[in-house]
Amino acid sequence: MHRTKVRVATDVLDANDTIARANRADFDRAGVRVVNLMSAPGAGKTELLERLLARGLGELRVGVLEGDVRGSLDAERLSALDVPVAQLNTDPGFGGECHLDANMVRSTLGVLALDEIDVLVIENVGNLVCPAEFRVGEDARAMISSVTEGEDKPLKYPLMFRACELVVVNKIDLLPHLDFSLERFLANLDRVHPGVERMLLSARTGEGVEAFADWLAAVAHNEAEPA
């Protein structure tokens, strides 16, 4: 019975990877670079994107695929910045899944205006487990970890931290008010993903957002480490 469960899980991931490769081929043909942005709920993905889109990326055109279990509040926030935004809800059409997979992303390709963007940011469903398991056709993965989540998250959710090319530590403006050791968090990060690129920022104040914009521009110009 245990072997059967493992085989089923393997088959699901293999099927997902096949669709992810098809997505990647379509993105490549359109000349669109794709970033899969992941985090726990409330870590600050949408606020960071608001800051980023408000400042702009020069001549680079950015679009967003907003993933949520239900609702469109985050998509509405980003749409106000006059950028192409598509909403993808996993409930009810995809069973209320706590992540986006390659097939879900593929279902949106007909409504994504790929000819109008250079970089697509996929804001994944807030979750520190499942999103890390499913490739969606992205070129790079970044995850956001808020200082309010505690220092132990890399040790508790190692796959998420290993699966990314970039780890963003957000809400650093709150450090003076928290019992949080940044040194200990970074040490834990190095235990599970030694040497992974990391940056410290505050989406609320804007501190460090320039570095994230530079990283995204490097992805757009194919200068970042590939997924």
Structure notes:
The protein is of the alpha/beta class. Helices cover 37% and strands 18% of the residues. It contains eight helices and seven strands; from the N terminus they run H-E-H-E-H-E-H-E-E-H-H-E-H-E-H. A seven-stranded parallel beta sheet has the order 3-2-4-1-5-6-7, covered by helices on one side. Strand 6, helix 7 and strand 7 form a beta-alpha-beta unit. The longest helix has 29 residues. The radius of gyration is 17 Å and the shape is globular. The two termini are 34 Å apart. The N terminus is likely disordered.
Brief overview:
This protein is an alpha/beta fold and 227 residues long. It is built from eight helices and seven strands; from the N terminus they run H-E-H-E-H-E-H-E-E-H-H-E-H-E-H. The model is unreliable at 1-8 (pLDDT under 50).
Strand-helix topology:
Elements: H1 2-30, E1 33-39, H2 45-55, E2 62-68, H3 73-79, E3 85-89, H4 102-106, E4 119-123, E5 140-146, H5 153-156, H6 158-162, E6 166-170, H7 182-192, E7 197-200, H8 209-220
Parallel strand pairs: 1-4, 1-5, 2-3, 2-4, 5-6, 6-7
